[in-house]
């Protein structure tokens, strides 16, 4: 049987990776996974708890392991955690095991989409979410670009439209 391809979505918090990923998986009849959700499933705790108990370092170790395991599957769409690309190991795994799509968005959209989200401990500090997101973008946007096979803007479009755009670009 022909090998089934994988699609890995990267991009910052609030880019719509999970919603668009689900649409895309539905459309292409692939299985959908979300690395944050998988960490929560395996630990039985939410992301904020993992950060509280194990710090960001502990969280990143778990994230690396989860992405290692999930990228071994075939025929999946994976929404990756927004910070996962800071790991060299993760970037190598994603590049080697599937097509990487960078979902690009604006800081305004990120601010709007991440309000009241309990999965974003990095934004639950005394610093303004906008300024945290801006700093993360400076560090991480070059890494998303480096690992991406395809870059797609999410902006104001619905998840369905973005999923269609991805399919067109990939000729899947
Ligand atoms: O993985 C979660 C977690 O809140 C950390 C994060 C980040 O570093 O941008 C993004 C989320 O998907």
UniProtKB/TrEMBL annotation:
Residues given in the record as ATP binding sites: 14-19, 120, 157
Places the protein is found: Cytoplasm
Main location: cytoplasm
Source taxon at top rank: Bacteria
Family: Belongs to the shikimate kinase family.
Name listed for the protein in its UniProt record: Shikimate kinase
Pathway(s) per entry: Metabolic intermediate biosynthesis; chorismate biosynthesis; chorismate from D-erythrose 4-phosphate and phosphoenolpyruvate: step 5/7
Entry note: cofactor: Binds 1 Mg(2+) ion per subunit.
Assembly information from the UniProt record: Monomer.
Entry keyword annotation includes Phosphoprotein: no
Entry EC number(s): 2.7.1.71
Known role: Catalyzes the specific phosphorylation of the 3-hydroxyl group of shikimic acid using ATP as a cosubstrate.
